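step 4 of 6: structure.
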Amino acid sequence: MIGVGVIGCGYWGPNHVRNLSANPSSRVLYACDLSEERLAHVGRLYPATRPVRDYQEVLRDPAVDAVVVATPVSTHARIALDAFRAGKHVLVEKPMTASVEDALRLIEAADRAGKILMVGHTFLYASAVRMIQRTIAGGVLGRIHYVSMQRLNLGLFQTDYNVVWDLAPHDVSILLYLLPARPVAVSVHGRANVHPGVEDVAMMTLRFDDGMIAFLHFSWLDPKKVRQAIFVGDKKMLVYDDIRDTEKVDIYDKGVSAPKHYDTYAEFKFSYRYGEKVTPYIEEVEPLKFESAHFLECIQTGKKPLTDGANGLEVIRVLEASHRSIKNGGGFEKIG
Amino acid sequence: MIGVGVIGCGYWGPNHVRNLSANPSSRVLYACDLSEERLAHVGRLYPATRPVRDYQEVLRDPAVDAVVVATPVSTHARIALDAFRAGKHVLVEKPMTASVEDALRLIEAADRAGKILMVGHTFLYASAVRMIQRTIAGGVLGRIHYVSMQRLNLGLFQTDYNVVWDLAPHDVSILLYLLPARPVAVSVHGRANVHPGVEDVAMMTLRFDDGMIAFLHFSWLDPKKVRQAIFVGDKKMLVYDDIRDTEKVDIYDKGVSAPKHYDTYAEFKFSYRYGEKVTPYIEEVEPLKFESAHFLECIQTGKKPLTDGANGLEVIRVLEASHRSIKNGGGFEKIG
Amino acid sequence: MIGVGVIGCGYWGPNHVRNLSANPSSRVLYACDLSEERLAHVGRLYPATRPVRDYQEVLRDPAVDAVVVATPVSTHARIALDAFRAGKHVLVEKPMTASVEDALRLIEAADRAGKILMVGHTFLYASAVRMIQRTIAGGVLGRIHYVSMQRLNLGLFQTDYNVVWDLAPHDVSILLYLLPARPVAVSVHGRANVHPGVEDVAMMTLRFDDGMIAFLHFSWLDPKKVRQAIFVGDKKMLVYDDIRDTEKVDIYDKGVSAPKHYDTYAEFKFSYRYGEKVTPYIEEVEPLKFESAHFLECIQTGKKPLTDGANGLEVIRVLEASHRSIKNGGGFEKIG
Amino acid sequence: MIGVGVIGCGYWGPNHVRNLSANPSSRVLYACDLSEERLAHVGRLYPATRPVRDYQEVLRDPAVDAVVVATPVSTHARIALDAFRAGKHVLVEKPMTASVEDALRLIEAADRAGKILMVGHTFLYASAVRMIQRTIAGGVLGRIHYVSMQRLNLGLFQTDYNVVWDLAPHDVSILLYLLPARPVAVSVHGRANVHPGVEDVAMMTLRFDDGMIAFLHFSWLDPKKVRQAIFVGDKKMLVYDDIRDTEKVDIYDKGVSAPKHYDTYAEFKFSYRYGEKVTPYIEEVEPLKFESAHFLECIQTGKKPLTDGANGLEVIRVLEASHRSIKNGGGFEKIG
């Protein structure tokens, strides 16, 4: 039985408490937050978990084997470093840190402590993403021509970081997981519409070492929520629509598309050809349930996490280069 | 009764023949094409129209008041200039010309001849686009934050021009029509996947004189056809989906989106708020029917066309600057 | 070259004129209607076709080999019988006649004259329906458990016949074409909401000789148009959505659906299982184009039409029995 | 603080445990089930709840104020009667009982004991259903012409009762809640495809005392899940699609639908008119959370539950009459 403390019980932390409580391999010994109101709420739902305000109290308890860090990004590095020093395994929320420098320090600290460092790139534990990974790796789509991703919604406006830092960790981590190629340069065009200096809409272009290109669109301004990724290969095209409850993935055959002559408006409307579409069955499971189980398994077996520190670092490298690109007016910046 | 000759009966020309034949104000005297097979086909459907191979024959007939030029882009300027010299009104397909220089020559020639020069930006005659124009002009959306457009399909591959020259005329002409601001700079990231040197996928970013930003995504590689534009304002958001037969336009209220705490995965899924959505009724009419009628009306009344030479020129300016941007690696290029 | 006269140029007749004009095997010699305004309209669009008010004038012309009867249902029998007497082939619109008795007389008259009698069950010439026919005949769905069809829209209100006579001919003809079993009894529950005595909404239940059951829902009252048919077999399920421009047919695998335990609302939402879905590519062609070509081919070759008199009669038998069922309060009535 | 025991922890009971545990007004003292495995599972998730096998043990504890009965239908009456005798309030799952006779006995027992009897018609606590109730009651739809409901999925096959007993309680309870009229007769056509004698697909027709008609379609055989209800009024039409995560309700204006003449296939496709569609914003909350809170509130205040015994009885009356109708071949049976 692994003893766990969850540090940060605001927006996302309670989901860690719930999943780790339900897992028979772990017990959530502590829930930690600066807000008394949040602590009271979590305490009522999980009577076996002890609510505390000071995370040092969690780290001091030898019954705690591992901590989850679900606090604001700016505090990730400090808390995680303290945790490694106290000899705990750490699952840190995304983005791993606020800088490449901090990310490198975390990786080093985990190494030195001989403890697990895992990053909460939850989407990599989603059934649909894993199915897409197998599809691409199996060559079903052929050579990937380009990728287009959209993550648009009415945002949780932040003033300390922009829409890229908020939303890109999801899609960049998915992209790096799904594609064998590595990103070499990034260009970001954005605009701050609501809070001066804080971009709330952005278009990121990533260039990869094999020449592939990816477009990633982020927005905090869209009342209609969109979570979509399309992968266009030379054989097939895959569309991943994460808004849907089921049927999240469609795979399209390429049709023939010879220019045709036609004589009516209706024929014109039908003049583009499509191939067959297949919508595979995917069993839905809460991704965090898999993520929690994976974290516990890595602790028990010493296995390297799928979303380890190196993986978290690669995402931070893209974010830092993106930030430079926005500031330089959208020119390409090298990654790495 | 206005006598018309349609020059070019390949992909799109027959639709002009059909609409101008059905309009009681015009008669299609000539259908002109280099292909005997196309001429035979059009001749059978429209027995009252004379099929000819040489467009000069059309221009020589004094019964011909106006011509439609629906030939490959590279020939637009030459044929249209000949037509003005012969004293004909001209409706030229989009894009108007292959260069800004040619566009200026056409405008000047029309002026000198005192004839109508109209460009076939058909979408500006679509009921949905006109309804969106009234909606934006009426302030319903508030200040526009940004626009995102997508025109994706399995393409009619060209080797003489790229996906931007093929598809951007549609969306750029719509955008310039709908927005009061003028574009000042353009950046295009693209990639040639199939034919070396011919981009088949591209992302265009347009910056406007009021600071607004627009993203336009074009592709010839997508088996799933997409024709979508979203306009995000500070009051409402409008989504225009041109693939649908009806219900092409949705208008979304902005909902409140305060960060919430939640305890279950289901609550998490519902944690983004939406406002009411309204889908106005739009009566569908074939856009080219309106366009044909507008061309005839301008000839009869001397009225300036909605899609006149200046309008066609502005689109060409964006296309030329886009071309420079692609060639310089995606940096912004000034327009105009 | 087959000479044709189209009798009735109101709602649907002009589509016959257009398709038969475009077909190289036929010439439309006459367009006949009682309305001068309709005749003027058709005459302008088809200058080679002669507009006349009296259908006897059409029947007298020996250059006329065949007629299309697209007049109100109550006149079908009289006009078609006159046409057979005049030695013409006849394509009569659906429903073929207003009674079984008239249907039998038409079949007999066609036999006696040795001419083609074809019924305009247009849907049987639609690409999607033909693809579904091949799918079912090929055993892909397995044994059909049941069928459910919906044809709902804001109706073209009639006062001389009800929603069943208006809409059921489409779906009943499709059903009889697609299934090997024959209908033996019908029950119809309906209600007259707008015009007393004229049902504008109805639910038809058909029982077949193999025990299969089909539910057909018709309405003139629905602002949201629906055209859907589902075929549930013991292997797979097929959904045909005729509203869509493309992707009209989806084929679903049966998933496993063991009752599961679950602990959260989200798991509950995901607890029903689905199998893979396949959406075959279907090339869209205007069904009437195929129907016209088939009529001409049958005239030229003597081939029996797919939608011959016997087929039209079977539909009328279902309609008559349906009428009796509505009048008797919804009890089952024998067909045949 | 209200002490609660949840009897039955199979399919649905754990959701009661979760919601009543999270509600600050109640404590779940007992979770009761015959299966040791279910008890172990619930015990781990809710350490403060005592797992027991015998429901009499729950009833004997004076700290228990109320019980939830989430056992198989055939046992509802016996357990609930025992609970009333022991002086407990009772929330019994749907359908309330297996017969009208049992339902009457439960109502009488609750009256005699002076305790709350509430039925778990959960949908009446769904935000969307409550919003529809206000819409209809407010006259927005005008006079209701007819209602059509569909509840189709791959079923949890039962052999002790058919698809009507399984699925109709949901839709019938919704219908009775939403409409002021009362059902007077019911006809059900069904078929047993998989297990002889157990109908797995059925079409129910309900006639109401104001002449209104409703069609309810149930199936255990459909791989594509459908949960839809449409309400067609003389002013507007409302469509409720419970499959969607958001935008569950659309309200359609009636458009004009004069028959039109048209000359092309495309115009034909557009010839039906639609009015504007409005999709109201509805905040999603887990319905059972509201239901739990309502049960506790009724206990505390003595308020009559929205879904009280009389309400549960009315549903059972429809189910019993439906059963008679299926057995008599689909003829109408009186309700009540």
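step 5 of 6: annotate
 - Residues 133-285+316-334 of chain C form a domain with the Dihydrodipicolinate Reductase; domain 2 fold (CATH 3.30.360.10).
 - Chain C touches chain A through 25 residues (CB under 8 Å).
step 6 of 6: archive
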